[in-house]
Amino acid sequence: ITSYDLTQQTLAALKETDQKVNGFLALNEEKALATAKAIDEKGIDPDNILAGIPIAIKDNIMTKDLKTTAASKILENFVPVYDATVMQKLYDKDLVVVGKTNMDEFAMGGSTENSAFKTTKNPWNLTKVPGGSSGGSAAVVSAGMVPVALGSDTGGSIRQPASFTGIVGMKPTYGRVSRWGLIAFGSSLDEIGPMTRSVKDNAAVLNVIAGHDVHDGTTVDQPVPDFTAGIDQGVAGLKIGLPKEYLGEGVQAEVKDAILAAADKFRELGATVEEVSLPHSQYGVAAYYIISSSEASSNLQRFDGIRYGVRTQNAKNLDDVYVNSRTEGFGPEVKRRIMLGMYSLSAGYYDAYFKKAAQVRTLMKQDFENVFKDYDLIMGPVAPTTAYGIGEDVTDPLTMYAGDVLSVPVNMAGLPGLSLPAGFAKGLPIGMQLIGQPFAETTIYKAGYAFE
Ligand code: GLN
Q1: In degrees, to the nearest 5, what angle opens at C-alpha 117 toward C-alphas 116 and 119?
Q2: Residue of 103, 157, 171, 410 best suited for mutating to test ligand 1, as the one with most atoms within 8 Å of CB
Q3: Is 243 within 8 Å of 336 (Cβ atoms)?
Q4: Among residues 34, 85, 325, 417, which is most buried (max CB within 10 A)?
Q5: Could you report the per-residue pLDDT of 342-355, keeping only the tens digit for each?
Q6: pTM of this prediction?
Q7: Residue 157 is among the residues annotated as catalytic for this protein
Q8: Phi first, then psi: what are they for 435, rounded to 5°?
């Protein structure tokens, strides 16, 4: 099959399926077909297994000449003048971008219901959320519309939607993938990663997007291994820790059972699985929401109606431009986070909130370091529950935040975490999380591949 035919068939099929799922915010039809044609004319490199493969991109990743909204009204008309580093890397390897996917506004949320534009449905059950914030990317991969999508993960936004939709999602080590051109949320936590249907596909895409970038000073200047090499080596001799806090209160019985069954499977495959403890994980949600909102309140100052996006029609002076553009442009969850972040950074409250949260973050990091003295990997659920109903949690932000308890520690410590399918409950997928030491994505992929 030519790349052109593949792209054309992919677009035709996904347009049909997406009428039900609502995963895409925008399609990139003309350019995708032109790119595919150019790839065919140039000739497909037989060593490049990703040549001509269609990919979908979360709408907070900058795509030159293709609208990038972060699912916010304030960026409704925003067309970037440059590509994110990851995009350039995908183009260099001849992947074909078919469209931009729905998400929670500015990646704030866990269900994609905070999008200003549409509600994405879970392909397994159209009355359920696909998770979030990368819910559009998860849904379009899960429904078979594309084999690969990119997401971003600040506190679980790749792993939790992967878990809710039964796909594979990797949040790489902080510094592994360039954030240049990712619309910043919590800069010390954000990471871009691949969402796919299989572990090996995932590793192949990370091969493409990983690496040092002069435009992002937090990327690490370290050689990138081939993440697919030796992926089939198995887990014999591997030591895996299962934190008792990850199977505690609030974790749905079916989720717990699936993870215990997964632990048994790892034992059968020759690994050791033992109970460990991450004693500070109970403070993770509180500390995460202070740190991520503080960083967001600073990052989102640039959206003022002047430089990017939509400017209010309703202004008599400069102050009106700022205030009314932001009042009209941001949704309720984004405003809530900006207020929380500004408050915890303000002079009178900094010590009580931001500083405390930063200290808790250090303790959480040490928890992981202690376990990794004796173990190669940590396993557990990605989320306490399977996908919930559309409309069920969105009116109650604290319930929604509580669902992040098992995913945020990984971002707080900058570690790599993989979500992969580990069972079903009432027709809905259950996700397992494999957490590794910094830059140990290869170990995680090996274990994921052996389990799959
Ligand atoms: N659900 C979390 C939040 O709302 C995580 C979001 C993310 O990882 N982008 O902040």
Answers
A1: 100
A2: 157
A3: no
A4: 417
A5: 999 999 999 999 99
A6: 0.98
A7: yes
A8: -115, 135
